[in-house]
TrEMBL record:
This is Uncharacterized protein. It comes from Chryseobacterium indologenes.
């Protein structure tokens, strides 16, 4: 491929070297007093020094190679995009699963805390009941002692 590009480059340089260009400048004064400059370049090539069929063939070869390279780049880019999309989908699924796992564990912890709080409440009520019974017993004893 390097040889073909270099060949096309050499033909292009040769073609440019065999051209003759003439530049003409023309100035026109407008009605409002401004000046407009028009530059015209005329390029002439010598038909005897360059075989246009060979130039066209080289051009077509270069275009074909460029098209092939473009196709290869497009295919590689599509494969890379597909891999990125697949990785993104997998990551999304993993994150969703992790979120569900966290939610499930949080619900379990919440239930455990609620259960523990209910049990602690029952224990507190029971302790208060026993304490009240002891206070009542102590009050009865004190009352009996005072009445003696």
């Amino acid at each position: 491929m390097k040889k073909q590009i270099l060949t096309a480059l050499a033909i292009s340089v040769f073609a440019v070297a065999c051209t003759k260009s003439t530049t003409k400048s023309e100035q026109v004064e407008n009605a409002d007093g401004t000046v407009t400059t028009t530059t015209t370049t005329v390029t002439e090539s010598s038909p005897h020094l360059v075989d246009s069929a060979k130039v066209n063939e080289a051009k077509e070869n270069v275009n074909a190679k460029l098209d092939q390279a473009g196709d290869k780049i497009d295919n590689a880019a599509q494969k890379a995009k597909d891999k990125i999309d697949a990785t993104a989908d997998k990551t999304k699924q993993d994150l969703n699963k992790a979120g569900q796992d966290i939610k499930t564990e949080a619900n379990k912890v919440g239930k455990d805390i609620k259960s523990g709080a209910q049990e602690a409440g029952k224990d507190a009520k029971e302790a208060a009941r026993k304490s009240a019974a002891k206070v009542e017993d102590a009050a009865k004893k004190l009352k009996e002692d005072l009445s003696k």
